[in-house]
């Protein structure tokens, strides 16, 4: 009997460790149906306290229920904030993931929206955006005038640090994460790298907790991998709704920026998907309800351009497209004479 109890305790300890590494929800773990009363461990330094009953094993994290209300950054979208247990943690590493390169604009816009919420609540400190030369060459830089118009961020408040290698970007992010003179730190990387492992993200998370400042990890076109970030949000662009006027929706117009936000990983929340709209005037998010999405889909049941069906008679490949017809160009299929060829095509002769 004692051997069986020790084996069960070992199994549950391993499950807790795996859940902690993967960042899944370990607050409630099912025990075997034949489990009886087991003595709880009496280690006062343990980070979890088990409450064992004959039917299940409930693990309660210490400090989770006593977190102060201002420890979370509320987005304003009630559904997302409730699912996250109050919002995104302020003093922590948060991962914002874009599945493809085309989602880089949505990921950057969502991160800037979070920075706008932070600056709206506290002192207007500068924000440091760190990235490699590859990510800035592929995704570009934010537009200065758009920063102030959409997010209320002055161009001089956003500082950029371009690193030649990911190792240099990680070092810069670790040093910046400990500084209290910054409102937030953004680290943007591309693809999947072995440098971005649990050890590197643990250091970022620990320094964010020590400084009491958020660190946002933006990942572009990479596979979801284990990190120390308590929350991982998967971002993509959502169709914009028409602009609302006094007379109703303005047909053919483009409304506020919209994001599709999925909770990919959270230690305290269950997976979910939300559609958020950013209000640049109020500087807050608004959740688009499911009824509104169904109404938009009913108005536009099919895409504007139908998808290719790979039929028997595919469209021919397009040729060269010129803005203006070439002056004196021969007709299609005619070959110019040697005397009419362009001068730059002739071989140069010395002398």
Describe the structure in your own words.
- With 351 residues, the chain is α/β, with parallel strands linked by helices.
- It is 27% helix and 23% strand.
- The protein contains eight helices and 16 strands.
- The chain has a nine-stranded mixed beta sheet with strand order 8-7-9-10-6-11-14-15-16, with helices on both faces.
- Helix 6 runs parallel beside helix 7.
- The chain is globular, with a radius of gyration of 27 Å.
- The N and C termini lie far apart (104 Å).
- About 14% of the residues have low confidence.
Q: Quick one: how many beta strands?
A: 16
Percent helix range: 25-40%
What is the mean pLDDT? 77
Morphology: globular
If you compute it from the alpha carbons, what radius of gyration comes out, rounded to the nearest whole angstrom? 27 Å
Q: Helical element count?
A: 8
| Poorly predicted residue ranges | 24-66, 302-307
Roughly what fraction of the amino acids lie in strands?
15-25%
The main sheet comes to: 9 strands, mixed
């Amino acid at each position: 009997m004692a051997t069986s109890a020790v084996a069960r305790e070992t199994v549950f300890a391993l499950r807790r460790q795996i859940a902690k590494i993967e960042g899944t929800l370990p607050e409630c773990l099912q025990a075997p149906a034949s489990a009886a009363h087991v003595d709880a461990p009496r280690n006062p330094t343990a980070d979890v306290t088990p409450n064992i009953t004959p039917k299940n094993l409930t693990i309660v994290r210490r400090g989770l229920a006593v977190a102060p209300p201002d420890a979370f950054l509320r987005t304003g979208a009630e559904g997302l904030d409730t699912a996250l247990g109050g919002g995104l943690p302020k003093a922590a590493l948060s991962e914002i993931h874009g599945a493809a390169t085309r989602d880089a604009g949505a990921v950057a816009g969502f991160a800037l929206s979070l920075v706008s919420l932070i600056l709206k609540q506290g002192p207007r400190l500068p924000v440091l955006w760190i990235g490699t030369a590859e990510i800035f060459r592929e995704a570009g830089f934010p537009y200065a005038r758009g920063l102030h118009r959409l997010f209320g961020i002055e161009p001089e408040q956003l500082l950029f640090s371009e690193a030649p290698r990911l190792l240099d970007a990680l070092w810069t992010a670790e040093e910046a994460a400990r500084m209290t003179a910054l409102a937030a730190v953004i680290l943007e990387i591309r693809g999947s790298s072995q440098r971005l492992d649990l050890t590197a993200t643990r250091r970022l998370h620990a320094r964010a907790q020590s400084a009491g400042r958020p660190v946002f990890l933006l990942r572009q076109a990479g596979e979801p991998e284990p990190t120390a970030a308590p929350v991982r949000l998967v971002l993509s662009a959502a169709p914009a709704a028409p602009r609302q006027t006094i007379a109703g929706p303005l047909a053919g117009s483009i409304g506020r920026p919209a994001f599709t936000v999925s909770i990919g990983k959270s230690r305290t929340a269950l997976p979910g998907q939300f559609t958020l709209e950013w209000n640049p005037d109020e500087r807050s998010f608004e959740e688009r309800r499911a009824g509104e999405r169904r109404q938009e889909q009913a108005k536009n049941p099919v895409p504007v351009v139908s998808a290719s069906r790979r039929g028997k008679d595919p469209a021919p490949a397009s040729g060269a497209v010129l803005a203006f017809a070439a002056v004196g160009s021969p007709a299609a299929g005619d070959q110019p004479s040697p005397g009419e060829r362009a001068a730059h095509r002739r071989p140069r002769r010395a002398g």
